[in-house]
Design goal:
Elements (H helix, E strand, L loop, with lengths): L7 H17 L4 H19 L1 H23 L5 H14 L4 H22 L2 H17 L17 H15 L1
């Protein structure tokens, strides 16, 4: 575990990233870069060079895992970059817990977005999910429709990071 003061840059990055994502559905590159660089510095200072390499590996693994969802439009590039920047803080040793925490948080955020969407949009989402279950494949990502609330996945990344650091 890092000293509490060393979490300050990560907390600032996650706070700014969350607020920006909710407000604009974008996460500035500077936020993700700050998370990544501060994670590298903290890893080197607190744990040494091997821990920093583990963090770089976790960041690369995150990008690899989220590449396909990003390509098909299921997740935004800013979300991928923020998740990778946070993964540098997590390192390979806690990567499974981080991935599970972000995934579970993403489900909760998606449910909230679903509930905030208008009735017609919820009906379309329910139809898409039913078809996906029956056909065993995901449907194409729908174009944003009026009243459909998109999922600010940066919120899930932030919540997943918080869960990971508080429980491991």
């Amino acid at each position: 575990m890092f000293p509490a003061m060393h979490f300050l840059p990560l907390g600032l990055c996650l706070g700014v990233g969350t607020v920006w994502d909710v407000a604009k559905r974008r996460i500035p590159n500077a936020v993700s870069l700050a998370a990544a660089l501060s994670g590298l510095v903290v890893q080197v200072v607190d744990r040494g060079g091997l821990a920093a390499l583990s963090g770089i590996g976790a960041g690369a693994l995150t990008v690899a895992l989220l590449y396909r969802p990003w390509v098909v439009g299921g997740i935004g590039g800013g979300d991928v970059k923020l998740a990778a920047g946070v993964a540098i803080w997590v390192g390979l040793g806690k990567m499974i817990w981080y991935a599970l925490a972000v995934s579970a948080s993403g489900g909760v955020v998606a449910i909230v977005a679903y509930l905030l969407s208008v009735r017609k949009a919820r009906g379309e989402m329910t139809t898409n999910l039913t078809l996906a279950a029956l056909q065993q494949r995901l449907p194409p990502v729908p174009t944003p429709a009026p009243g459909r609330v998109s999922v600010p996945y940066g919120v899930a990344v932030s919540a997943g990071a918080l869960i990971t650091f508080l429980t491991t």
